[in-house]
Amino acid sequence: MTEQGERAEQLPIDGFAHVELYVGNAKQASYVYENAYGFTPVAYAGPETGVRDRASYVMEQGDLRIILTAPMTTEGTIAEHVARHTDGVRDVAFVTNDVQGTFQEAVDRAQEHEEVFQGEELVDDGFVVRKPETIEDEHGTVDIATLATFGDTVHTLIDTSNYGGPFLPGYESIDTDRDVQGVGFQTLDHTVGNVGEGDMARWARFYESVFGFRRFLDFDEDDISTKYSALRSVVMANDDLSVKIPINEPAEGLKKSQIQEYLDFYPGPGVQHLAITTENILTTIEEMRTRGADFLDAPEAYYENLPDRIPIEGIDEALEDLEELGILVDEEEEGYLLQLFTNPIQDRPTLFFEIIQRKGAQGFGKGNFKALFKSFEQEQEKRGNL
Known about the structure:
Elements: E1 16-22, H1 26-35, E2 40-45, E3 54-61, E4 64-71, H2 77-85, E5 88-95, H3 99-112, E6 128-137, E7 140-148, E8 154-159, E9 172-173, E10 185-194, H4 200-211, E11 214-219, E12 230-237, E13 244-251, H5 258-265, E14 270-278, H6 281-290, H7 302-309, H8 319-325, E15 328-332, E16 335-341, E17 352-359, H9 369-383
Parallel strand pairs: 1-4, 5-8, 10-13, 14-17
Antiparallel strand pairs: 1-5, 2-3, 2-9, 3-4, 6-7, 7-8, 10-14, 11-12, 12-13, 15-16, 16-17
């Protein structure tokens, strides 16, 4: 179990707003997200809209919004991020109805709890990536500010309640005659961050002391391990669970864990995966597989042993359908969940998606942890990284 920190009063953070990825080629990435994952391109910013340093495509499906941003030059934050990480998550944005107040309180708390950062340049200028400002166009106004977190990741605080445009000022609607068919994605359930060994506890304290998030769940080596590798994890969340951020660190094992593999190849701390909800995981995974999406394979005998772990009569879905599509199942007191993980969505073994359907359960598939680790290890061995 991780060391307990002091939790501050929760700041008025009401959910995920969007996730922005910095990518090498946003036009190509938007094509993949549209055709493989069913996102609709709805807005664009770039030189044609007066934005000189980047090209950004806003992709939507259900209530989920992902921005794909590429640099227009070889210099600047975006180009440096892509050069270091290739495609990766830069911004996990939060909705708030008080950007100025939330920003100022977060900065004040960061200064009071400087010991949490242990030398990281987060307080003062390093913590403040973008000071609060109001941006506007003919569609209205948007309040916005940005703060730093682990690695090169940031959290933008945003209030668009007074804005009626396609996304933000500087963006224009994308008009297309294409009939984009979604795959059933609904919302962003959680984002998972990977940090270095020994750093998980202090980043948990960061979310407790600065944002006022609570420790929703803790997992250690006894929960998440195989004979080769292990990890520790703590799930930070706001009170209504509209924001959930698990933070992982590698634990010592006989071989390299998938967390350490991520840290080596990203390189450094960052967002490992995005968990996306669906109302019907069977149809979602079937459609994604039809479009060429690549998923982790369940370990041998997973479905043969499943009835010994879970009362199958309490599961609505047929076991043979789950096995055919490779979907994993876990049960909790409140219900059960169904989940499946893609393989990395770029060449480096870093960012991937989790597809999840919650049928009462609010956890993270603890009963599948060992199976998942074995699945990751199967892929690591293929890459020569185990």
